Amino acid sequence: MFDFSWVDFNLFEVTYDVVVFVVGITAVLAALGVILCSSPIYCALYLIGHMMCLALLFLLYHAEFIAAVQIIVYAGAVMILFLFIIALLGGKKEKQEFSFHKFMALGFVGILSAELMLSARVGKTQPVEGMFTPAKITEVGSAKAVGIELFSRHLVPFELASILLLVAAVGVICLAKFPLKPLRRRAR
Amino acid sequence: MIDDIVHFFEPYIYLIVGGVKAIIIAVALTAVVPGLVWLERRLMGRFQVRLGPNRVGPFGLGQPISDSIKLLFKESIIQSSADKFLFHLAPAIVVFTAILSFAVIPITQPFEIFGQTIGPWIANIDSGILFIFAISGMGIYGKVIAGLSSNSKYSLMGGLRSSAQMISYELTLGIAALSIIVMTGSLNLVDMVKSQEAVPFILVQPLAFLLFFIAGVAETNRAPFDLPEAEQELVAGFHTEYTGMKFAMFFMGEYINMVTMSSLVTLLFLGGWNTYILPQNALTGFLAFAFKVLFLLCFFIWLRSTFPRIRYDRLMTFGWKFLLPIAIFNLLLTSALKVL
Predict the structure, then answer these.
(1) Which of A112, A148, B17, B122 is the most exposed place for a label (fewest CB within 10 A)?
(2) pTM of the model
(3) Final residue belonging to a domain, choices A89, A124, A159
(4) Computed over its alpha carbons, how large is the radius of gyration of chain B?
(5) HEC per residue, B183-200
(6) Residue B64 is assigned to a structural domain of this protein
(7) Interface touch B163/A48, C-beta < 8 Å
(8) CB B148 to CB A87 under 8 A?
(9) Which residues of A touch B15 (CB under 8 A)?
């Protein structure tokens, strides 16, 4: 009869690796699409795709809570506002022309790749050791783990970030709602 | 040989079970849609003192079949100024997200079959309720993209309204659900139902139920919150330019979203599969769940035929200045009571 013992690799692990690789490559391609596409609507859609891929990566690394939050906050709330603005202002294709900005962009690309090489020279990144081990996270759940860490150890930076966002919101309302000089209405 | 094959697949049995469950739920959801359309038309007829569809088959039950055949064979017209790729993508997104968000909904209690304990859900993930909010938030892109790609004023306005309405009412929805999360201390839907074994949360949190239901009606774009497709002002909103099956797919998405939202309300507030009066097992659990969902669906239809559509600025004022403060107040009160 047939012998299946020659199948010595773990099907699940191989599939997992392949899926992680494909999602990662898609994320990079989508990120390239954001900066290379000329139509603003497609740029926004590529950005949404990129964020979905990041959420999928989080999901593949068993961080369900972070994945859900990533989709709700970035792919959901932030990007819908982007699309809203594009729809309101009318997305027109940009003209491609050679300019000083391109040289600046090239410079940035050079700096980034140099930094990438430097970081590759330094070696592997080290995981940050905390109170949570994988066993403990499966016990309490990833949402609780994130919550405990965020509201105990990183409370001050968290609150500072929320104050920063509040200041930005108040500033936008001030700019939009109360102009220094009252606008002159056109005579009817 | 069969033994070998069985032995080879044994470690992956949960994948096979999951796949079968996924297929069953996806097919059941899409099959529910024509029935729901029929129910809505019959009930609307009764509410408006007329008969509704009653010519095709007994009680007009053949009407949804004939309608779907008609929609399938209609010519698909795409105007030349539309963005073809996005135009095709939009209805697919709507249906895909609508079916996907049902994946974490448990429809009855776990039961045993062939010695395997089977959970009646596709996935029982740790933060199930967040998953539903996330995926149903993605569904709105289908509507916005439909509005943008159609290259028509009515569609664009429909898409814009859709996104604005979504952002406004998602907050209330989330905060109303948060008070339940605070009470149960878990984001898992199964845990939430289990903590309602004694008493459903609608009796403990009536205000949160009301807020959640109103925001849920607004989220599914049903009347009286159907501003994105207001027939009298926007022709048909974001799906003005769509024909044939692509047009029908938007409706499929809307009806599946209705089912998902009703299931979510059932799980969060009405005690899910808890029967309370009947003996509790998987079958009665499913019947109780189905009954509650069907009741809520009829309630949706009842709302549609009772209330007129509200004005756009009133919609925004209602959402931001009335529902949201009450929801935040309710959340604060719940958390304070929980801590005390």
Answers:
(1) A112
(2) 0.81
(3) A124
(4) 21
(5) HHCCCCHHHHHHCCCCCC
(6) no
(7) no
(8) yes
(9) 12
